[in-house]
Amino acid sequence: MPDRVTMPQEAKPKTKAKKKAAPKKPAAKKRPAKKAAPGMSDAAVKAKTGKTWAEWFAALDKAGAKAMSHKEITKLLGARHKLADWWSQMVTVGYERARGLRALHQKADGFNASVSRTLATGLDQLFEAWDETRTRASFLKEAIAVTTRNPGKNMRFAWDKDGGKVEVRFTAKGPEKAQITIDHMGLASGAAVKRLKGFWADTLEKMGETALKTSKRVRGSK
Which of 97, 153, 191, 200 minimizes the number of CB atoms within 10 Å of its CB? Predict the structure, then answer.
């Protein structure tokens, strides 16, 4: 009996192993701002708006304000609750801070640093200390280009070194007493706020003696 012939099996074509795609890294989540106090007492906000902070927070949560932009919240407060523009802004900022939607010192256009000081000098003399270039250079070394100038009220200028804009406001507190407030607006971070608050506080400290000397010089020349 002849041997059984085994027919060769057809070779299967080799297939290339598919490379497994590397798993995609999840996009880094933006770290929410720390929750902070709204910035005004319950008594003050209720006296002007008719609600405490807790009542405003509950009303805004119910309206879905967590998912709204700053502009949308202020518009809601004006249209539905009849708040004036300034109080719409104030309640919105307080809500955003309390819900971690806005960091401390952060405004719609960035972060703000603010310092103030009251001096025993006249309003005109205090304004003159900033307005007169040579006098200002004795306490503020950086050169500035004033864009807005309202004698006895305020002045504004850009701040190229750190970015943002600066407003200096002057307020009479009596015949020989005046307050100066510096608002540095549009800063990039909370760290910048801390640094610039220190810088402007030092500037006001240096300015104090200059303003007082200027005041005495002006009074003596009358």
Answer: 191
